[in-house]
Amino acid sequence: MQNSAEGEPLPDSGATPLLPRLERQRLHDTVVEHLRKFITEGVLKPGMKLNERELCETLGISRTPLREAFKVLAAENLIEISPNRGASVSRMTEAEIWETFELMAGLEAFAGELACERITPAELAQIKALHYAMLACRAQNDLSGYYSRNQEIHDRINAAARNGVLRQTYLSINRRLKALRFRSNQQTQKWDRAVQDHEAMIQALEARDGKRLAAILRQHLLEKREAVMQGSLAAATPAEGTNAPASAA
Question: TM segments (predicted)?
Answer without folding.
Answer: none
